[in-house]
Amino acid sequence: MLELVMNIATYSLPFLFVLTVVVFFHELGHFLVARWCGVKVDVFSLGFGPELYAFNDRKGTRWRLAAVPLGGYVKFHGDPSGAGAPDPSCIETLPPEERAITFFAQPVAKRAAIVIAGPLANFILATAIYSALFFSYGRVVLTPRVAAVIPGGIAEAAGFQRGDLVLTINGAPIESFGKMQEIVSGASGKPLTIVVRRGDQEVTLGATPQLREIETSLGKTKVGMLGLQASDDPADMREERYGLVNSVRLAFSETWMVVDRTFSYLGGLLAGREAADQLSGPIGIAQVSGQMAKAIAKVGVWPLFNLIAIISTSIGLLNLMPVPMLDGGYLLFYGIEAVRGRALTERTQEYAFRVGLAMVCSLMVFSTYNDIARLIHKIAGGGS
């Protein structure tokens, strides 16, 4: 029994830490911009349900920690439900001075700024974490040297040999094996011109990466591959340290890479090149959070914070999707309002919110199903 409790704690506590950090910064973005725009915030809540702890600040906002720590919300003045949907009957009962500080009394531009501030805060958090990691730890760079060519693979057919040092791909200089992987993984079906140094010569090779399915900590994914193995020789590894400016520059690049991979996956999903079973939900995130927490004793905190940066970027992107109930859905409504000169009718918005809620719930159910299916498969396969 004790072992079961320990296992639950091992996965649930890191998951709650990751989720709380991401949600806090998302809601903080909404909160800060709302304050700057003159909107009163009644409640800032981490979690849902009964209060565990709460206090009121000098401006009347109630900061609360709730019993169900799976998300959070900011409730603006004049919004009794906290859902962000206008309630004319409630607003009309307010005196003019209070009505002026409600969210719905603000012009479209201010409302849009408040809404988009949440996803932007997620991107800022991710960039800040990556900047701190690069500045504090640097990174280990693996020389793009070929240690082995997988028999029967694309690389063997293209003429790669053990010991080849990759110099350029389609004219772009390659400084690390990771950079080569990044280019190859996103170039499935696209021909690449690769220049390698072989002894004292430079050899030009042509290869087209083939889409392969690989297993990751969040499930299966498909990437372009050539069939090359990286060198594990310590002589081909070097540690690079960065100043603040370069750390921030690399952080922006790392955040954008997560965005680019997400869009590539969504595009592949729509085109039928990707499988929907790659989607992960809370259970999958909890598993990875637990694994990252276990690694702290061996390699430090950077894997856990790297996960926070990835999740934060993903949450920011998800919320920008033009689906009612998400921030992107509100932005869509405000865009329509700006073009029409008036908001959509209350009835239209209500139906849109119902559709959006159904879509979000369906996504959660489907991603959770994927997580459970992966767990069952792992258990049935003896943990392999």
Q: What would you note in describing this structure?
A:
52% of the residues lie in helices and 21% in strands. The two termini are 25 Å apart. It contains 12 helices and 12 strands. The chain has helices at 2-36, 88-92, 96-99, 108-137, 154-158, 177-185, 244-271, 282-294, 296-299, 302-319, 327-340, 346-380, and strands spanning 41-56, 62-76, 139-142, 146-149, 165-169, 172-173, 192-198, 201-207, 210-216, 219-225, 228-230, 237-240. Helix 1 (2-36) crosses helix 8. Among the domains are: 11-37 and 106-137 and 299-380, no CATH class; 139-240, Roll (Pdz3 Domain), CATH 2.30.42.10. It is an alpha+beta fold.
Topology:
Blueprint: H1 2-36, E1 41-56, E2 62-76, H2 88-92, H3 96-99, H4 108-137, E3 139-142, E4 146-149, H5 154-158, E5 165-169, E6 172-173, H6 177-185, E7 192-198, E8 201-207, E9 210-216, E10 219-225, E11 228-230, E12 237-240, H7 244-271, H8 282-294, H9 296-299, H10 302-319, H11 327-340, H12 346-380
Helix pairs in contact: 1-4, 1-8, 1-10, 4-7, 4-10, 4-11, 7-10
